[in-house]
Amino acid sequence: MTAATQTLTGRPAWKALEQHFQSIREAHLRTLFAEDPKRGERFALEDVGLYFDYSKNRITEETLKLLLQLANETGLRRRIDAMFRGDKINVTENRAVLHVALRAPRGESILVDGENVVPNVHAVLDKMAAFSDRVRSGEWKGHTGKRIRNVINIGIGGSDLGPVMAYEALRHYSERGLAFRFVSNVDGTDFAEAVHDLDPAETLFIVSSKTFTTLETMTNAHSARDWSLQGLGGDSRAVAKHFVAVSTNSAKVSEFGIDTANMFEFWDWVGGRYSMDSAIGLSTMIAIGPDNFRDLLTGFHEMDEHFRTAPFERNLPVLMGLLVIWYSGFFRAETIAVLPYEQYLKRFPAYLQQLTMESNGKHVTLDGTVVDYPTGPIYWGEPGTNGQHSFYQLIHQGTRLIPCDFIGFVHTLNPLGRHHDMLLANVFAQAEALAFGKTAEQVKAEGTPDSLVPHRVFQGNRPSNTIIVEKLTPNTLGKLIALYEHSVFTQGAIWNIDSFDQWGVELGKVLAQRIIPELEAKTEPKLEHDSSTSSLILRYRQLKEKTS
Ligand code: G6Q
Questions:
Q1: Are 316 and 50 in contact (CB under 8 A)?
Q2: Taking the C-alpha atoms of 459, 461, 467 and 470 in order, what is their torsion angle to the nearest 10 degrees?
Q3: What does the alpha-carbon distance between residue 330 and residue 377 come to, in Å, rounded to a whole number?
Q4: What parts of the chain have a pLDDT lower than 50?
Q5: What is the structure's pLDDT at 6?
Q6: Omega before 385 cis (within 30°)?
Q7: How many CB atoms lie within 10 A of CB 481?
Q8: What is the C-alpha to C-alpha distance for residues 172 and 345, in angstroms, rounded to an integer?
Q9: Which of 105, 196, 315, 529 could lock onto 534 through a cystine, CB 3.0 to 4.6 A?
Q10: How far is the CA of 159 from the centre of ligand 1 (A)?
Q11: To test ligand 1's pocket by mutation, which of 90, 153, 268, 273 has the most ligand atoms within 8 angstroms of CB?
Q12: Is residue 288 within 8 Å of residue 463, measured between CB atoms?
């Protein structure tokens, strides 16, 4: 077996980690900290404006050494270089993976099939900037001559989650004279609620779809067109003033009736969940303005450069990714909680769910072999402190190990009395409580009745990372997103999976297409599903008929 085809669990570093795990699995963070008074500084790293404290992890120098060895044995460096070079590392779709080119400065060169893609990236950014300025200034008018007051992004998955998250995250920087809404679900309620109080004459739709064929998006886009035309007297010329598109598919865009002059392009080497900094970010740019959008891209790029050049032992995404490998592969942790102590980041965990789970929820390696180790964990989370009053109980005292990422900012964008110190005190207190807990002796010493002692014991030894950033800005948001993107890359490279395809979303889509006509048929359709699915379809048809 060559080094490249060696299975992960057969690698020397993996075997050494298995052995090492036996010696460290019971070690308590209390002991690790007591033995090394400088641990909190030693296992911390500051770069590109992010402070990353990973000392409250169940690791030693030896763990790190072996994880870094694993990164080397699995060819992480080679994989990083291949991505940045534009190699077709998305092997199942035979595509380059070049979201890093979306934030490459003007003048850089990144080749795809021999063509430098960076000039095209900047041409689209310039076109987006000109359009954004026109909408923001009121120069872009609707069909009746009114200025645009509402911008609605229609998209789903990668064409929705990034724009929603970025709008919420950067709301502080947004143009408050414009309202932004996002429609994704094929459930008509999503569209109906988004437009119920809006005037079509003041509403601009951005139809965001890489393929321009996605069922949900195209259904919503057609409903939006009907709603617009109905409200604007039925003149189809109104579409040109109230609809723009973000897509790779110009033929489908014109077929829909959108002038391709108002289409913002991106490319097949941008994966949906890695596309929020492409033209898919048009709503973000209109909200925060082109200068802030460029700051966002600069933040992404700074993290890209850090990931590409920093030695692995000082490389933030690499260390973060290796810790995920450690907990999922050895402690068998099933989930990871992301806990931003920043209200503006309320949609960040939801965004990360797609980034992490669509990327690394794979059960076969690049060559199709079924893995014999766990791959992508479940990511979830809520902003603090709200989560503390709901699910943190399980993280503190439940039976599962849930590594946590705490994210906090030194400066708030909304200074208000003592709020921010209280917020940050909670970040530090939670990480401290999780790591060190409270022993039975401590609980007893507080005068707790014996019968309650076990209930009030905190075992501790629950690991976390703490990421501290100076302030939430477009720039730091870009860095945080890129940090997770490259952590996901690191994990996928070591697991030897394709982090850039998503075949798992296909089957359900195909089956739904088959079922739609069965639900709508006027005459009883011949159902050839399993007995459960057929009965459900039948029941729906009968009840629909009876109660309509
Ligand atoms: C993301 C996925 C997926 C995609 C949506 C929307 O990586 O590919 O979430 O973004 O299915 O696809 P379209 O942009 O083509 O409508």
A1: yes
A2: 50
A3: 13
A4: none
A5: 81
A6: yes
A7: 26
A8: 12
A9: 529
A10: 6
A11: 273
A12: no
